[in-house]
Amino acid sequence: MESGNKRLDEETLFIVSQTFKALSDPTRIKILHLLSDKPHSVNEIAENLQMLQSTVSHQLRFLKNLRLVKYRREGTTMIYSCDDEHVMSVLQQMIDHAMHH
Length: 101
Prior knowledge:
Blueprint: H1 10-23, H2 26-37, E1 40-41, H3 42-49, H4 53-65, E2 69-74, E3 77-82, H5 85-99
Antiparallel strand pairs: 1-3, 2-3
Helix pairs in contact: 3-4
């Protein structure tokens, strides 16, 4: 892991803190973990995770604003997928870590 003497600028610090904020919520972790397998519609996510569609939509908006997920339109359906492989890698490492403790 490289760190050296590089100083972090305010924008970088903000992005890092917001990303960890996103990963601090169990609902968002469940959504990202599900999307790491394959893209899903809001309804599919809600059904898979047994959550209300409105809850899923709210969390997806949060994740989209941080550019952690993206979507494409198929007719009237929005299909969501992961948009940041770095963050997904960190999330998977954290899940692996938790499962081994």
